[in-house]
Design a protein that fits this description.
With 482 residues, the protein is an alpha+beta fold. It is built from 15 helices and 23 strands. Adenosine-5'-triphosphate (ATP) binds next to strand 10, strand 13, strand 16 and helix 11.
């Protein structure tokens, strides 16, 4: 049942996520805003769990990484120093007939041509070759009347200060296109206040904004999104001059292991090496996930070696010395950086895609159609630690005798876990709802519970049920979620 057509699977998952209150189109009652999404109750819980899992792995469990929460607005010179004002753009191509707009590098990709980080001249030469062979047509309406590619800035402008009603150049600020800018700008304050010794990292989770040319792949590519980024600062001369190689390798393995730890099988992950590097980068790999429903392996996370370019540029443009003095070697230098950078929603989409399962069931507690035939159940087999709701408490009847017990259980367990108390509809339908949102355990309270002071706990994945004493429930779940 999981071999459904990728496009159908994509539509099914998108529809489930809306129907079950995970993801909504932004401003839907006004017709929507393209490439912008809102997150409902379960989506918010899932995103929070993903961000917590990342923070736990990146900061809590490491002695060498500290946290930061920097503002979205930064001094406009930040983005001149980083090169974003002049060069953060994508190649845009338009169809003159149907007016559809595309990323020219993605159009070339369809022909097996890798245009990653290539100049606009290079891209136009490749497009011209395809044109001459009469192969270049609009992916939407098949017209051959396409414009040449041109650079389109992804920077989102806003303005601050007075007068705020005009977008005058002196008031222009940018909504940050990536969160790491804030890390570079607070590098010095972090060193001066927390005194970390090299090598160390600064990690942060926050919103970023990009005026993406095409944002049609649901939450995979949006114009407003959250990133989880970490910049690791080090002295390249340490480790016998192998620090860059060794630290880079360590972060590769560490980030790869994160996905395996949360249930993504290795077969769905891939390393993509960037052949053409950004001018400052010394090496760049992406972890790709097989988003089959979006056409195959696509970038999930970047793990890049950035040399000392970022701090050098900000030193130069700000006039503030961002060098580091090593007490041991008595050496002063600009630290080098290895970066890990991933989108929260892209991570969510990978986890959901990996977890989404349709299976035929014969469980007597599942919904069985009137002719007694077995039914299909949809279940989100997501890692328990990421599941939005951990436990559902389901009394078999709405009678006070049972709901008094279930409310007590809710009160106790909700102090520690996100728990849901659901008394509506048949037990089969309630199980189905919890399966669809990935709740690992359902607790049912029946009339026997009043006698034996026990409840039935049902496991989401195996659908096995076991009887547990009410006063042992908290202990039982502590073990399950340990
Ligand atoms: P892509 O090639 O897909 O446009 P990128 O190489 O520009 O991505 P980075 O600048 O390296 O992406 O950003 C780091 C991470 O942030 C990406 O790996 C991705 O997970 C996430 N990300 C980037 N752009 C978007 C976006 N528009 N929507 C959602 N997530 C994004």
């Amino acid at each position: 049942m999981n071999n459904i057509d990728p496009k159908e699977r994509f539509e099914t998952i998108v529809s489930l996520l809306k129907r079950r209150g995970f993801v909504y189109q932004s401003s839907e009652i006004y017709g929507g805003l393209s490439g912008i999404y809102d997150y409902g109750h379960y989506g918010t819980l899932l995103l929070n769990n993903i961000k917590s899992a990342w923070t736990k792995s990146m900061a809590q469990e490491r002695e060498d990484v500290v946290l930061l929460d920097s503002a979205i607005f930064m001094h406009p010179t930040t983005w001149k120093a980083s090169g974003h004002v002049d060069g953060f753009d994508d190649p845009q191509i338009d169809c003159r007939k149907c007016k559809a707009r595309f990323r020219a590098d993605h159009v070339l990709e369809e022909f097996g041509i890798n245009a990653d980080k290539q100049s606009i001249e290079w891209i136009n030469t490749e497009l011209d070759k395809l044109r001459a062979d009469k192969k270049l047509v609009c992916p939407n309406c098949k017209s051959a009347d396409l414009t040449p590619a041109k650079r389109f800035s992804l920077m989102v402008k806003s303005n601050l200060g007075s007068p705020v009603d005009t977008l005058s150049e002196e008031n222009v600020v940018y909504l940050r296109p990536e969160t790491c800018g804030g890390i570079y700008l607070q590098y010095k304050n972090t060193v001066d206040s927390l005194h970390p010794k090299l090598p160390f990292g600064i990690a942060q989770v926050g919103k970023a904004f990009r005026n993406e040319i095409v944002a049609k792949q649901f939450v995979f590519r949006t114009r407003e999104f959250e990133q989880m980024e970490m910049q690791y600062f080090f002295n390249p001369k340490t480790d016998g001059g192998n620090a860059t190689k060794n630290i880079y390798e360590e972060w590769h393995q560490y980030r790869w292991a994160f996905y395996l730890n949360y249930g993504i099988p290795e077969s769905r992950l891939n390393w993509f090496k960037h052949e053409k590097l950004a001018h400052y980068a010394t090496d760049a790999y992406d972890i790709e996930y097989n988003y089959a429903m979006l056409g195959g392996f696509k970038e999930l996370e970047g793990v890049h070696a950035r040399g000392n370019w970022d701090l050098s540029q900000h030193s130069k443009f700000s006039g503030c010395d961002l060098s580091y003095f090593d007490e041991e070697s008595k050496e002063r230098f600009i630290p080098h950086i290895v970066e890990t950078s991933v989108g929260v929603a892209r991570t969510m989409l990978a986890f959901i895609d990996n977890a989404y399962t349709e299976e035929i069931v014969g469980d007597p507690t599942s919904l069985v159609s009137s002719d007694g035939a077995r039914d299909t159940r949809v279940v989100l087999k997501i890692d328990k630690r990421l599941a939005p709701v951990k436990i559902a408490i389901l009394p078999l009847s709405k009678k006070d005798e049972l709901t008094n017990v279930s409310k007590e259980i809710f009160k106790k367990l909700s102090k520690k876990y996100f728990v849901e108390h659901d008394i509506t509809q048949s037990i089969g339908k309630r199980y189905r709802r919890q399966d669809e949102i990935g709740t690992p355990y359902c607790v049912t309270i029946d009339f026997d519970s009043l006698e034996d002071k026990s409840v039935t706990v049902r496991d989401r994945d195996t659908m096995k049920q076991e009887r547990i004493a009410i006063d042992k429930l908290a202990e039982y779940f502590d073990l399950q979620f340990a």
